[in-house]
Amino acid sequence: MSRQIGRSVDPKKVSGELFTLTYGALVSQLIKDYENEDDVNKQLDKMGYNIGVRLIEDFLARSNVGRCHDFRETADVISKVGFKMFLGITPVVTNWSPAGDEFSLLLENNPLTDFVELPDGHSNLSYSNIMCGVLRGALEMVQLDVDVRFEQDQLKGDNITEIRLKFIKRLEDAVPVGED
Amino acid sequence: MTIFNLYIFDRNGTCLYYTEWNRRNQSGISKEEEFKLMYGMILSIKSFCSRLSPTDLKDGFLSYRTSKYKLHFYETASGLKFILNTDINAGNMRDNIQQIYSNIYVENVIKNPECKLGQQITSELFQTKLDDYIRSLPQFATKLS
Amino acid sequence: MPRMEVEKTFSYPLELTLKNYNDQIVVGFGQRDGIKVGHAVLGINGIAAQGRSLEDGRDVLEVIANEENYPLAIKFGRNKLSTNERLVLTGMFHSLFAIGSQLSPETRSSGIELIETDVFKLHCMQTLTGIKFIVVTDIRQVGVESLLKKLYEVYADYALKNPFYSIDMPIRCDLFDINLQSAIEQSERTGISNV
């Protein structure tokens, strides 16, 4: 992912490294601006959310994926179509809860964290938290209320990066009074 | 053949965009009320179709036709609703509406940070692109009256 | 058309999200082995469900939520329309018909004559006297206009000309039913286009 030599010449595509560096600069600036790392996580989540509610339209327009009627289907589409389209990776979908309302995405290689070494004293920081926001925002736009958080992170010495998604409820369309 | 007008609603029922080309009859109520009526009708017709359907629906309601016009409906998974009115001889406009969504709406509204989501679209670029696209369609060919 | 019904034995917890819709417990999210979103709970462990409760009086959602009741054999399927719902839908169409005419971008438009979805078509013919004939067909059915005209004739012949039929009341005439049936059967034989 990080060491691509013969880059494609598509003028609309930017280098993955530039993207990673930009994100890194953003996070480190946020850390300077906010004293509390929980606030940084919150800001990243908020930014991600704002990206997600827009990105979903691009996703739907390009992928031709219809509405999901099952959370397993949702998980598959997120991993095989969504992550593939925007980050070029396909996380493994695993660790289903018995009720089928929770699963994990395992990322072997997180493109946001190339070149990143987390210094000591940042144990509360969820470096790639923007992803949670993106997922949350995008899913909310397709009527899925989902809780998203990092469970494990390679930056913190875990073996794998794990994002946990929990289905909360379906958001029914806003309908005028008298209809259901 | 001709195209009359286009409505775009977001999932909360806000009319994001309305424009007309060869419309010859006004509904006799204010635009705001007309938008509400149109959105309400679309919701009812969707619910009507899903309750009436003998088997499971996939896309659900697609279009209806009266003696004078045909209403084409397209809804994205994110709840964005496109309503295009044409004359009754226009065939299936689904692909065209999909084009408007993916090539004009997403490119010029979603990717334009100036355009706030859930509010009326004011982008001139969007309006021009949409107008050019509609006028280029074979279904548009204005009839002389 | 065959009515889709699926019975499956579930263990706790249920992998489907159910919701209350029009006094029916229906699947809101999640799909399994032919059970689809929108299907209603028709019965549990062989006991038929009526609306939100079972025939023995227990509440469907409470039975399903209680872990002690598992394993549960739950039957799902598309809900059949009751006479009451039919009347509600007819009323809905009546207003949609009128709004369709009001929102017309072209002058002097009729109301809705044809609704298309991905699985059925609805044809409506309104006579000059304001009676509506509505036929729901397969999307491949052709020649529905002539069927509608035929139905108008059947209505005129066997309902209106029957001195014991009172106008604007539900039609309960055997001859009408018989002729209606034969008109529909004839249309079915000739009307499905061979695609």
From TrEMBL, chain A:
<keyword id="KW-0931">ER-Golgi transport</keyword>
<keyword id="KW-0564">Palmitate</keyword>
<dbReference type="InterPro" id="IPR024096">
    <property type="entry name" value="NO_sig/Golgi_transp_ligand-bd"/>
</dbReference>
<comment type="similarity">
    <text>Belongs to the TRAPP small subunits family. BET3 subfamily.</text>
</comment>
<dbReference type="GO" id="GO:0005794">
    <property type="term" value="C:Golgi apparatus"/>
</dbReference>
<dbReference type="InterPro" id="IPR007194">
    <property type="entry name" value="TRAPP_component"/>
</dbReference>
<comment type="function">
    <text>May play a role in vesicular transport from endoplasmic reticulum to Golgi.</text>
</comment>
<keyword id="KW-0813">Transport</keyword>
<dbReference type="GO" id="GO:0030008">
    <property type="term" value="C:TRAPP complex"/>
</dbReference>
<dbReference type="InterPro" id="IPR016721">
    <property type="entry name" value="Bet3"/>
</dbReference>
<dbReference type="GO" id="GO:0005783">
    <property type="term" value="C:endoplasmic reticulum"/>
</dbReference>
<keyword id="KW-0333">Golgi apparatus</keyword>
<comment type="subunit">
    <text>Homodimer.</text>
</comment>
<dbReference type="GO" id="GO:0048193">
    <property type="term" value="P:Golgi vesicle transport"/>
</dbReference>
<protein>
    <recommendedName>
        <fullName>Trafficking protein particle complex subunit</fullName>
    </recommendedName>
</protein>
Automatic annotation (TrEMBL), chain B:
<dbReference type="InterPro" id="IPR011012">
    <property type="entry name" value="Longin-like_dom_sf"/>
</dbReference>
<protein>
    <recommendedName>
        <fullName>Trafficking protein particle complex subunit</fullName>
    </recommendedName>
</protein>
<dbReference type="GO" id="GO:0030008">
    <property type="term" value="C:TRAPP complex"/>
</dbReference>
<dbReference type="GO" id="GO:0006888">
    <property type="term" value="P:endoplasmic reticulum to Golgi vesicle-mediated transport"/>
</dbReference>
<keyword id="KW-0333">Golgi apparatus</keyword>
<dbReference type="Pfam" id="PF04099">
    <property type="entry name" value="Sybindin"/>
</dbReference>
<comment type="similarity">
    <text>Belongs to the TRAPP small subunits family. BET5 subfamily.</text>
</comment>
<dbReference type="GO" id="GO:0005794">
    <property type="term" value="C:Golgi apparatus"/>
</dbReference>
<keyword id="KW-0931">ER-Golgi transport</keyword>
<comment type="subunit">
    <text>Part of the multisubunit transport protein particle (TRAPP) complex. The heterodimer TRAPPC6B-TRAPPC3 interacts with TRAPPC1 likely providing a core for TRAPP complex formation.</text>
</comment>
<keyword id="KW-0256">Endoplasmic reticulum</keyword>
<dbReference type="GO" id="GO:0005783">
    <property type="term" value="C:endoplasmic reticulum"/>
</dbReference>
<keyword id="KW-0813">Transport</keyword>
<dbReference type="InterPro" id="IPR007233">
    <property type="entry name" value="TRAPPC"/>
</dbReference>
UniProtKB/TrEMBL annotation, chain C:
<protein>
    <recommendedName>
        <fullName>Trafficking protein particle complex subunit</fullName>
    </recommendedName>
</protein>
<dbReference type="GO" id="GO:0006888">
    <property type="term" value="P:endoplasmic reticulum to Golgi vesicle-mediated transport"/>
</dbReference>
<comment type="subunit">
    <text>Component of the multisubunit TRAPP (transport protein particle) complex, which includes at least TRAPPC2, TRAPPC2L, TRAPPC3, TRAPPC3L, TRAPPC4, TRAPPC5, TRAPPC8, TRAPPC9, TRAPPC10, TRAPPC11 and TRAPPC12. Interacts with SDC2.</text>
</comment>
<dbReference type="GO" id="GO:0030008">
    <property type="term" value="C:TRAPP complex"/>
</dbReference>
<comment type="similarity">
    <text>Belongs to the TRAPP small subunits family. TRAPPC4 subfamily.</text>
</comment>
<dbReference type="GO" id="GO:0005783">
    <property type="term" value="C:endoplasmic reticulum"/>
</dbReference>
<dbReference type="GO" id="GO:0005794">
    <property type="term" value="C:Golgi apparatus"/>
</dbReference>
<dbReference type="InterPro" id="IPR007233">
    <property type="entry name" value="TRAPPC"/>
</dbReference>
<dbReference type="Pfam" id="PF04099">
    <property type="entry name" value="Sybindin"/>
</dbReference>
<comment type="subunit">
    <text>Part of the multisubunit transport protein particle (TRAPP) complex.</text>
</comment>
<keyword id="KW-0256">Endoplasmic reticulum</keyword>
<comment type="function">
    <text>Core component of the TRAPP complexes which has a function of guanine nucleotide exchange factor activity for Rab1 GTPase. Plays a role in vesicular transport from endoplasmic reticulum to Golgi and autophagy. May play a role in dendrite postsynaptic membrane trafficking.</text>
</comment>
<dbReference type="InterPro" id="IPR011012">
    <property type="entry name" value="Longin-like_dom_sf"/>
</dbReference>
<keyword id="KW-0333">Golgi apparatus</keyword>
<keyword id="KW-0931">ER-Golgi transport</keyword>
